[in-house]
Write a structure and sequence with these properties.
With about 90 residues, the protein is an all-alpha fold. The chain has helices at about 15-30, 35-70. It has a domain at about 15-70. It has two helices and no strands. Mean pLDDT is about 80; it is low at about 1-10.
């Protein structure tokens, strides 16, 4: 029996990179001059949906980075504690 995967948002594509690649492919499709108008419109609509989800994902990532950078627990200038790596004989 084949392993069933859970569909992710944006048409079942799992990760950011896959969705971005799909958006690029849709852009190339839309630029073609020999495709029917209804196909171009469908590609455009899918591209808009993907762009919105990618933008939302980027905002979440930016928020996480901002939280990490502003966290009082992290002090970049402080030397790391390397006690575990000291030689003890």
């Amino acid at each position: 029996m084949a392993k069933k995967t859970q569909p992710a948002k944006s048409g079942g594509m799992k990760n950011f990179e896959e969705r971005l690649l799909r958006l690029e492919t849709l852009g190339e499709t839309i630029r073609k001059t020999d495709i029917p108008l209804d196909e171009a419109l469908a590609a455009f609509e899918e591209g808009i949906r993907l762009a919105r989800t990618l933008e939302s994902d980027l905002e979440k990532i930016e928020n996480r980075i901002e939280i990490l950078m502003n966290s009082s627990e992290i002090n970049i200038e402080e030397s790391p504690d390397l006690e575990l790596f000291d030689d003890r004989e």
